[in-house]
Amino acid sequence: MKRIVVLTGAGISAESGLKTFRDSDGLWEGYNIEDVATPQAWARNPAMVQQFYNERRKSVLEAKPNAAHLALAGLEKAYDVTIVTQNIDDLHERAGSTNVLHLHGVITRSQSSLDPTLTYPIDGWEIKMGDKCELGSQLRAHVVWFGEDVPMISKAAQICQKADIFILVGSSLAVYPAAGLVNYVRPEVPKYIVDPVIPDMQGGRHFTKIEERASVGVPKLVRELIENSIKS
Ligand code: APR
């Protein structure tokens, strides 16, 4: 079965009502993202950071997967699909995708503030100050903050190197190391981008550009790929 790798960004969840980062002039629920998503912010004011992510988690739990998430889940019928997402929502999983790699963590889980490899499910929408991990340290959102390591990046790069088809959906490619993944895809591999505002990128000329919203462009592309797989 051909391997498809889909790299998704905030744009795929925009039509599910979750704000993107750079479209909403960089403000996240009124906060400057760099002021809340950093270890320094946590050290300075953990309760504020906790509340910020609790609010984000509530909107994620209220959001629904859209036609783009659902179409990508359906692609698994005809291809070996890996979703590499920069998003911290769980909409790909709730749409039915079974192979999702979260580069920046996932907001529906908590993690030990001492050991990021210790993660836990969250009962409900909030992590309270005083909720502790097994090491006795405060629990925080299982999200990679600016300046922290991206532990999944090398696995994601290996996956991109093995792609037979590569699809980029809804990312400005503004943040590394995620943005650098496109360079791991072999030159001969067909590449597609779905975004109403196609971002500048190295090698962009090799991408088939679908200048549409994800909920329109992704289902169309998936239908075409499934037809191709039937014909071949
Ligand atoms: N359908 C498809 N794409 C869309 C839609 C839509 N309905 N609406 C917006 N977009 C596109 C925008 O044109 C843009 O290219 O989604 C992209 C959103 O870019 P960003 O807001 O920069 O989001 P993303 O690329 O995911 O950011 C990467 O930056 O802030 C950090 O860690 C955070 O994971 C995030 C990373």
TrEMBL record:
Binding site residues for NAD(+): 9-28, 86-89, 170-172, 214
EC number: 2.3.1.286
Pfam hit, one: SIR2
Enzyme active site: 104
Keyword field: Cytoplasm, NAD, Transferase
Compartments where found: Cytoplasm
Residues the record lists as binding substrate: 53, 56
Primary subcellular site in the record, as a coarse category: cytoplasm
Catalysed reactions listed for this entry: N(6)-acetyl-L-lysyl-[protein] + NAD(+) + H2O = 2''-O-acetyl-ADP-D-ribose + nicotinamide + L-lysyl-[protein]; N(6)-succinyl-L-lysyl-[protein] + NAD(+) + H2O = 2''-O-succinyl-ADP-D-ribose + nicotinamide + L-lysyl-[protein]
SUPFAM superfamilies documented for this protein: DHS-like NAD/FAD-binding domain (SSF52467)
CC annotations in GO: cytoplasm
Molecular function in Gene Ontology: histone deacetylase activity, NAD-dependent; NAD+ binding; protein-malonyllysine demalonylase activity; protein-succinyllysine desuccinylase activity
Sequence ranges assigned to domain Deacetylase sirtuin-type in this UniProt record: 1-228
Annotated function: NAD-dependent lysine deacetylase and desuccinylase that specifically removes acetyl and succinyl groups on target proteins. Modulates the activities of several proteins which are inactive in their acylated form.
UniProt record similarity statement: Belongs to the sirtuin family. Class III subfamily.
Domain comment in the entry: 2 residues (Tyr-53 and Arg-56) present in a large hydrophobic pocket are probably involved in substrate specificity. They are important for desuccinylation activity, but dispensable for deacetylation activity.
Protein name as catalogued: NAD-dependent protein deacylase
